[in-house]
Amino acid sequence: MFRLTLTRLPRQTILPRLQPRHIHILPVRPMVLTQRQMVVRTLITRSAWASKDPIISYKELKPLTQQPTDEIIIIDVREPDEAALGMIPSAVNLPMSEIQKALDVKMNPGDFQRKFAFPKPALSQNIIFYCRSGKRSATASELAENLGYHNVRNYVGSWLDWSKRQETKPNSEDEDED
User: Locate the Rhodanese domain: which residues (predicted)?
Assistant: First the structure.
């Protein structure tokens, strides 16, 4: 990158008459942010979605699984053998054992996609974590927050709650909350 600067010119000089000796091209260092600076910038851009409540309920999650969007990603942090037993619709699997390395800014998005078969979430993306009972997903939420992902929510009931509610009311409206 370069920055263009002009030396002071006499008043009568007009721009089309600039001579090469009046123009100086200076190299500019690319802006490199520290982890702390990235966290501060992300806090400023934190969405109202994650600010209202870091916990998401079944009642709020259910419609998101029926009409998935690219704005919200649901991540199952169970290990692949556990996830093979069943997953929340539209969720993707990112094992807890891989979270720290996978969400680190040093992880190349192309490598991430090749390894996990879905695009690496952007720092500003809305993310919902879940696991079997809610403990690992709480840890994953905290790890993601520490890595600069601040639009993070945790489905506390996780897979146990989801599967129980699906067995009891597979096609009905879910009246009860939490």
Answer: 68-167
